[in-house]
Recover the amino acids of this structure.
């Protein structure tokens, strides 16, 4: 699986398999937030996403839901 830096998962949410589709945040200017301060924003390469989907399918073949790890302005 391709994960960049620390993965932040909702501790109160269901434990769906994770799929990283971007790294960091497009905003990265909120003064209170240091989550991605040192990580530049990038889209995950499609090859990584396809590999991770195949790996997830082999590990959790009955999964019906995945959680996308993506960071966009205003959606932490
Ligand atoms: S938009 Fe969200 S992730 Fe990005 S800097 Fe602000 S609080 Fe952090």
């Amino acid at each position: 699986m391709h994960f960049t830096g620390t993965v932040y998962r909702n501790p109160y949410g269901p434990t769906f398999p994770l799929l990283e589709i971007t790294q960091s945040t497009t905003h990265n200017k909120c003064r209170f937030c240091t989550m991605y301060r040192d990580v530049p924003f990038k889209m995950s390469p499609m090859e990584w996403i396809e590999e991770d989907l195949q790996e997830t399918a082999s590990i959790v073949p009955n999964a019906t839901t995945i959680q996308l790890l993506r960071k966009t302005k205003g959606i932490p």
